[in-house]
Every structure is written in structure tokens, then in C-alpha cells.
Task: inverse folding
């Protein structure tokens, strides 16, 4: 069961990154040709994968591997959770615009699209930082008592 949960956790993480990469690619289209219905669907998959990633990750941290007592004293793990929260907050702005554009407000100016692209770039950088934190936490680096 531990291996299956680890695989699911990794697959959800890869799905999250893939959704961000696809969003970024679709946002490169000219202003009038950005496929907002597709972006809204991809963003929904992104949100679902993020929610499941947190659920599976916390389940693993609490019930498997080293246990919550270990992870709750791991500074990189706590930073990773904080980064995930920052990513979640940052994703609100694009999600609102994708939803609005899908439901009638199809005229999104280039400035807004560029802002959304910057946010997605930042999200990808923060995901990379999360990966570093996950590796450090798994190896016991940054454990505080």
C-alpha cells in the first residue's frame, strides 16, 4: 500500500506540472485566439490534481513512511506546505479569468493574459522549489526538535 500511495502521489504531482505547462503554452497564443474553454478545463484538472495531491501527501505523511512526528519537525517539509499554499493563492487569479472567459467574457486584454502567464511561470518555479524541499525532507535535512 505504501508503494501505491507513493506512485499516486508522484503521478498527481506530474499531472499538476503538466497542467501548468499546457496552460503556459496555450497562453502564448495571440490575444483573440487564446482558447479559454480549454484553459478552463485544464485549470479544473489542475485544481483537482492539487487537491488530491495534498490529500494523498498528508495521508502518506500521517499514516506511512516516517510518520507525522517526523514530518512536523522537518523545516523543508513545512516550507513545502507553505509554498503549496502560496501556489494555491496565486492560482486564484488565473482561475477566475479562465472561468469568466469560458462563461461569456471572452475579451481578455493582453495585459491580463501576460499577467496570468507570469503567475503560471511563478507557480512552476515554486513547484520546483517544492521538489527541492521534498527531497531535503525525505533525507532528514533540516530536521528540528
Result:
Amino acid at each position: 500500500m505504501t508503494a501505491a500511495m507513493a506512485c499516486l502521489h508522484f503521478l498527481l504531482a506530474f499531472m499538476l506540472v503538466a497542467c501548468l505547462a499546457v496552460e503556459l503554452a496555450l497562453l502564448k497564443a495571440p490575444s483573440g485566439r487564446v482558447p479559454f474553454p480549454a484553459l478552463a478545463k485544464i485549470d479544473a484538472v489542475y485544481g483537482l490534481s492539487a487537491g488530491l495531491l495534498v490529500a494523498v501527501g498528508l495521508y502518506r505523511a500521517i499514516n506511512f513512511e516516517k510518520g507525522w512526528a517526523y514530518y512536523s519537525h522537518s523545516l523543508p517539509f513545512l516550507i513545502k506546505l507553505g509554498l503549496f499554499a502560496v501556489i494555491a493563492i496565486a492560482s486564484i487569479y488565473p482561475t477566475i479569468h479562465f472561468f469568466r472567459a469560458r462563461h461569456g467574457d471572452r475579451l481578455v486584454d493582453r495585459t491580463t493574459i501576460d499577467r496570468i502567464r507570469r503567475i503560471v511561470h511563478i507557480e512552476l518555479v515554486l513547484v520546483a522549489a517544492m521538489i527541492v524541499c521534498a527531497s531535503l525532507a525525505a533525507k532528514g535535512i533540516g530536521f528540528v526538535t
